[in-house]
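Much of our argument rests on the idea that a fold can be written as discrete symbols. The amino acid sequence and the backbone structure tokens for this protein are reproduced below:

___
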Amino acid sequence: METQIKADEHTRRRYLEQFLAQVERRALIMAEIATSSREEALDLVQDSMLAFATKYARKPQSDWTPLFYRILQNRIRDWYRRNAVRNRWKGWLGFPDDSGDPIQSAPDPHSVLPEDEIHRDESGDAIAKAVGKLPLRQQQAFLLRIWEGLDVAATAKAMGCSQGSVKTHLSRAMASLRRQLQEYR
């Protein structure tokens, strides 16, 4: 009996690792689009994965995808709130904008070389920029429904809103993206 429990636990752990490996790359891209920062995105995804593994690993596997993305979207919303408060305090206290910090504006040694960037697909970059310009809720609806392929119910669960809100946000996102990307049609 005890060996069966250990075997079940090992199998569940293996499934959890496979699930997290499967969503990691897409979650990172979602967070990076939302934050415009690779480092912030990495932190958000890592926090989301840890929270998911500690709190929800025992839930049915069919619930894992919307639960994970709900955690990630909550982390992104929290990041936006923290930045808004931080920026407000900086403004009130008269601190300069971070964009003038020479350390922050130094080139990243791990960044893509300009020669490699030239060969990138322009339309892919334009889509990523256009999605990054969308309001957060529209961004979430687009990425979860279109890019991640979740159905309306799972997207609503992940976003913490009604199915009607998901449809509205997605419709607005699609209309905005069509306008922004008209030249690539």
Q: What stands out?
A: The chain has a mean pLDDT of 82.
